[in-house]
Amino acid sequence: MDMDDLAWQAGNYRGLSPRRVRLLLDHGHLNLVAQVAVERGEWFCAEGAVEELCQAGDFGRALSVMEPFAVAGWRAASYAKAEILLRAGRRTEEAWIRSF
Q: pTM for this one?
């Protein structure tokens, strides 16, 4: 995964579309969506899985799904990582520092 690939995914719905990801999640396939996000670098899977994981209170797993995207330098992933930390109850300063 790299920045160009992530930008292309976000602009062209390459791979699994947000709609398809939502359908998978609605039918209980969170583990599969999270796995595809990490193994195949599917941005929309990562977004969907992180939202579901945060709602379930599994912030550690949400961070592990988002981390490869943040490491790749994808700004949206850095913001998502900060949001995960905030939702987990981390201090604002820590969330900001750890997300970049």
A: 0.79
Q: What angle do CA 66, 70, 76 make, to 5 degrees?
A: 85
| Residue 74 or 12, more confident | 74
Q: What domain range includes position 23?
A: 3-98
Q: In the prediction, which pLDDT does 3 show?
A: 61
What SS3 state is found at 2? coil
Element (DSSP H or E) covering residue 51: helix 43-55
Measure Cα distances from 1 to 27, 41, 65 in Å.
27, 6, 13
**Overall number of domains in the chain:** 1
Tokens coding 20: 């398809």
